[in-house]
Design brief:
heterodimer, A: alpha/beta, two-stranded antiparallel sheet, B: 311 residues, Alpha-Beta Plaits, 2 domains, six-stranded mixed β-sheet, 10 helices, 14 strands
Chain lengths: 449, 311
């Protein structure tokens, strides 16, 4: 067996056997799932406590119009003034009290909710929705036009539903969803960012470990320093890909698990679910319709996800992960070799991490205009392209841009690996030397021999 | 010659680490590479191990230029040495042995032998961080010699060993020599040089300043100093030895006196004896050879003197 594969094997096995790797592999997909499910679940839990709210209405015109809902109950305290209610609304068992001071048509801000707790958005939205409806009617009535109700109804029924269809090269049509596309782009960009950062710094830590434990000189008397560096970089890349593969498989299992659960008639609260709920609350739809709506939506979302070119994206992900990782890992390896301890790494690590952080910001901007100049240039610059191009991938950038970006990235990581190798082989055998950028440059120059 | 370095030059930016250094290590010898800190010893050793390359000059093994595969014939115990702390001892030893070209099975077989010999089998499944520094050094030593290298290079091998283990190590180094290995050995510990080295080279400030067999060097640097134990009158001694002989001091003991006498350059012990044998009772005589430690200090200090002719 060749020496470099021995090194890869060691780097891989020692990391994959670690408890932290196993824990991460399991927790990752669970966290993804939790990110989808938990917020909606929490908000639905909050809704189930009944809140009673007192109303003090000095005009007497609005109080009766604010109707109760399942969890919000309103009481109009007709003959009380604000001071009284303020002093004892809590004792009376009210969550909050609503104070309407003047006619809201003339003074739209003359209404206030008081409570000693933070008012939830649901409560505030329910009240303002009801008041707005009422004010709208009052305003319309003030024009005194006969048959206006019918006209309004007709006007409200005019609706346009724009579907976005992306035309394929071969003229096929796919219904695409802006939201799903952006989500997919975000997930992939974040994944590249996360993997490059996490595993790139692992390379640095690994090199530092070899240096501080002083084993490195024993090893480089058997193998070339470059072999040791590449063995470590490749071994850790394989750890990352293994982790990713485990995540894909586990997430798929979770996905099928959830979908089976949904179509079983069980109700899984998701973000989508709570959005649907709030929309339907306005239309006063019944509970059973909501269920099928949710199932419909679920299939709708999955079909839209399928509309994105997932195979192409996964391929690009693997390429950009490996390319970006090799680029940054080699720089991190050079840093690890140059430093004596993790403590003094900060001033050198920051400049390496800056482009990574910058590319996340550019990726965010790229969602607004995935074919714009900013997105284009940053998906060409090799230090940002792995993340920015991944953010553009679901929007299907022109193929020549993709190929050009990949070529530039490939050329650059070959260069950085060569560059890092030169710093690395001098650095690993330097102990107790304060490094500076000038020092690194010197190492780079004289280690050529 | 088993190992030769020819006019090796190595320049690090502004610092010349090795300036035309030669080395000739005979097969089967224990060769001391000496010199103060920063003299260039470690650089030379790294060049022999092909960790770095020389700027000019060459290294020959058995008359052949050094090749990449030669790392399998070299065992190297560096001064800065360590092990992966989180790895198990046995696993790590196998890994390092395989990097030196041994197959997995051979590595295990040989490791079993050495672990039994050193009675350290119980450490096999322990993590390195659980062992003391001395224990780790033992494992490093085993790993260094495991693949039966023809050339063994030890950089400060005794540092970190207690006297008992240092002695064990010394015996093992001599045993390796008897098995036919050639040993290059860099140290500051002059006591161990005198005990086990046949030849030495002394490097100072990137240059070779002294090289040769240990016995020859001692003869060359001796001060013709004789330690003489005698009974009799010390004034008599002075009178019969004459002006060429310098009595440095005389210690008068209860039973006898001990005199330190410096002979003239061409003087010999026989001559000296003939001068005094009829006048004092000689109890014992010995020529005092300088210790390697004294030679080391003397030669290095001489070479550190500014020498305007050569500069």
């Amino acid at each position: 067996m060749s020496k470099i594969s021995l090194i890869i094997q060691r780097e891989y096995l020692t990391r994959v056997r670690k408890k932290s790797f196993i824990v991460m592999s399991i927790i990752g997909p669970v966290l993804f799932g939790a990110m989808m499910v938990l917020p909606a679940w929490f908000s639905s839990m909050e809704d189930t406590t009944e809140k009673r709210i007192a109303i003090v209405d000095q005009t007497g015109e609005y109080a009766e119009q604010i109707t109760d809902t399942e969890f919000l109950k309103f009481d109009w305290l007709q003959n009380s003034n604000q001071q009284e209610v303020a002093s004892d609304y809590k004792e009376q068992g009210y969550y909050a009290y609503l104070f309407i001071e003047k006619d809201l048509l003339d003074h739209p801000d003359a209404v206030t909710i008081y409570s000693d707790a933070q008012i939830t958005i649901d409560v505030k939205e329910h009240i303002s929705r009801k008041l707005e409806q009422l004010l709208e009617q009052k305003k319309l009535a003030s024009y005194n036009i006969s048959g206006l109700d019918a006209i309004i109804k007709e006007v409200n029924n005019v609706k346009v539903k724009v579907k976005t269809i992306k035309l394929g090269e071969d003229g096929t049509e796919k219904e695409s969803s802006q939201f799903i596309t952006i989500m997919a782009a975000l997930v992939f960009a974040m994944l590249v960012y996360f993997f490059v950062l996490l595993y790139g710094t692992q390379v640095m830590r690994g090199v530092l470990e070899e240096k501080t434990s002083r084993i490195v000189e024993v090893i480089v008397s058997s193998v070339k320093p470059f072999q040791l560096m590449m063995g470590k970089i490749v071994g850790i890349a394989m750890v990352a890909l293994t982790q990713f593969a485990i995540w894909v498989v586990l997430t798929m299992m979770l996905y099928f698990g959830i979908s089976a659960f949904v179509f079983d008639g069980g109700k899984v609260p998701t973000r989508m679910d709570s959005q649907i709920e709030s929309v339907q609350a306005l239309d006063d739809n019944s509970n059973s319709v909501e269920m099928t709506e949710f199932q419909k939506n679920f299939t709708d979302v999955t079909s839209k996800i399928k509309a994105i070119n997932l195979v192409g994206i996964l391929f690009a992900f693997v390429f950009y992960f490996i390319g970006g990782y090799l680029l940054y890992a080699s720089l991190f390896a050079a840093l690890g070799a140059a430093l004596d301890s993790e403590a003094d790494s900060q001033q050198f690590v920051m400049p390496v991490m800056m482009p990574l952080i910058l590319s996340i910001y550019v990726a965010m901007a790229a969602f607004r205009n995935p074919a714009g100049d900013l997105a284009f240039w940053f998906s060409m610059i090799p230090f940002t392209s792995p993340i920015v191009m991944m953010a553009r991938m679901p929007f299907e950038p022109p193929i020549w841009e993709l190929i050009l970006s990949m070529l530039i990235l490939t050329g650059t990581f070959i260069f950085t690996t060569w560059f890092a190798g030169r710093i690395y082989r001098t650095g690993i055998l330097m102990y107790g030397k304060k490094v500076s950028y000038g020092e690194l440059w010197k190492w780079f120059r004289y280690s050529g021999k | 010659m088993f190992l030769e370095a020819k006019k090796v030059v190595k320049q690090y930016a502004a610092h010349l680490a090795l300036d035309h250094v030669d080395l000739e290590v005979p097969e089967g010898s224990i060769y001391g590479l000496l010199g103060p800190n920063g003299a260039g010893k470690t650089t030379l050793i790294r060049i022999i191990n092909q960790i770095t390359g020389p700027d000019s000059g060459e290294i020959l093994i058995n008359g052949q230029k050094l090749k990449p595969e030669d790392v399998h014939r070299i065992g190297y115990l560096p001064e800065e040495r360590g092990l992966y702390k989180k790895m198990k001892v046995g696993e790590q030893a196998i890994y390092l042995a395989r990097l030196k070209g041994l197959s997995r099975n051979d590595a295990i077989k040989k490791l079993k032998y050495w672990f039994e010999k050193f009675e350290i089998q119980a450490w096999w499944d322990k993590k390195v961080e659980e062992l003391s520094k001395g224990m780790q050094q033992k494992i490093q030593f085993v790993v260094t010699i495991l693949h039966d290298p023809k050339l063994l290079i030890f950089d400060e091998p005794f540092s970190g060993f207690d006297p008992i283990n240092a002695n064990l190590l010394k015996q093992e180094i001599i045993a390796q020599k008897e098995k036919g290995a050639t040993i290059l050995f860099s140290t500051h510990n002059m006591g161990s040089v005198e005990e086990i080295c046949d030849h030495i080279t002394l490097i100072n400030k990137s240059k070779t300043i002294l090289t040769g067999q240990v016995d020859d060097i001692k003869q060359e640097y001796k001060d013709n100093l004789i330690k003489l134990d005698f009974t009799g009158d010390s004034d008599t001694l002075d009178k019969f030895l004459g002006g060429d002989y310098l009595i440095q001091n005389i210690i008068q003991n209860h039973r006898m006196n001990t005199a330190m006498v410096q002979m003239p350059k061409e003087g010999s012990i026989n001559q000296m004896v003939s001068k005094i044998i009829d006048h004092v009772e000689i109890q014992g005589m010995q020529e005092l050879l300088p210790s390697m430690n004294e030679i080391f200090i003397k030669v290095v200090e001489q070479s550190n003197q500014p020498n305007p002719v050569n500069e």
